[in-house]
Amino acid sequence: MAAGTPGAHGLDGRVVLVTGAASGMGRAEALALGREGALTWVADISGPGAEEVAAQVRDAGGRARAVRLDVTDPQGWREAAELVGRTDGALHGLVNNAGVSHRFGISDTTDEDWRRVLDVNLSGVFYGMKYTASLLGASGGGSVVNVSSIAGMTGYFSAGYAAAKWGVRGISKTGALEYADRGVRVNSLHPGLVETPLLLSGSDRFVQESLRSVPAGRVADPEEVAGVVLFLLSDAARYVTGTEVVVDGGLTAGGLYHRILAGLGEGPA
Q1: What is the Cα–Cα distance from 58 to 36, expressed in whole angstroms?
Q2: Which helix (H) or strand (E) holds 225?
Q3: pLDDT band at 269 (very low <50, low <70, confident <90, very high)
Q4: pTM of the model
Q5: Residue 96: strand pairing partners
Q6: Residue 61 burial (CB < 10 Å; 0-12/13-18/19+)?
Q7: For residues 230, 233, 238 and 241, what is the CA-based torsion angle, rounded to 10 degrees?
Q8: Which of 58, 77, 17, 24 is closest to 200 using CA atoms?
Q9: What is the pLDDT of residue 214?
Q10: Which intervals hold domain Ketoreductase (predicted)?
Q11: Does the pLDDT value for residue 2 go beyond 50?
């Protein structure tokens, strides 16, 4: 079944909060959850952006609420969790999707950018788990999907981005261990090249050069990532916790050698 086919993942009636949901993968995830019948909290630092996506979910026949949330603000997380609990009495899923891109190495990363990237991409995940854990547990258990990156699976040239995404991978395992007795599962998701504003925020040359290392030969559609998120949130993944799920068209599987062979234009001698 396609991502978001009603009933395909058994999420009808569940309450799920998605951060960074005003655009890109977060938007695709929110729309897919809406089609599944989940009540989706569309959270984003852009209040109007969150409202717009929530309206799109409702226009398509789903249920959604919008909340402005700066994921770097612990008080904002406390208030968001309290609002969800007060309004709906439950939370069954959390998708820590919010993130920023940064493509500079150690020497070229400013102190301010280092803090900004770590705050959004890593601290936002930490606060999300910390302040929703009780609500998830009280709902009889649930699933947390922390969006990392293939930059958290291999060496990557960007200092802050790599550090944050490796951190997300590690803290997801910590969460899986800590919250297991509450029935809460925690996994990290590692997308490769996905056609989103985040990917396209840099040069087109970066994207085209990166594609040479993707065996599938193309970027992913955000819907393809959303489909994996739906699976991880569902009961079909009820024994999947503390692990990494990679969605990258084979990029990390092929590694260096796929690119070498692509450059040669033929098999190895």
Answers
A1: 12
A2: helix 222-233
A3: very low
A4: 0.90
A5: 146
A6: exposed
A7: 110
A8: 24
A9: 84
A10: 14-183
A11: no
- At 74 the three-state DSSP class reads helix
Burial of residue 218, with CB atoms counted within 10 A of its CB: 0-12 exposed, 13-18 middle, 19 or more buried: exposed
Instruction: Compute the distance between CA of residue 161 and CA of residue 156 in angstroms, rounded to an integer.
Output: 8
Q: Residue 204 and residue 217: Cα distance in Å, rounded?
A: 15
Domains of the chain: 15-202+221-250 (3.40.50.720)
Residue of 146, 149, 189 whose CA lies nearest to 18: 146
pLDDT at 195 over 90: no
Determine the Cα angle at 17 with ends 14 and 21, to 5°. 130
CA angle 117, 29, 222 (to 5 degrees): 75
Cα 202 from chain centroid (whole Å): 20
Backbone φ, ψ for residue 193 (5° rounding):
-80, 115
Which of 127, 161, 179, 257 is flagged as catalytic?
Answer: 161
The set of residues, in sequence order, having a beta carbon less than 8 Å from that of 170 and lying 6+ positions away, is none
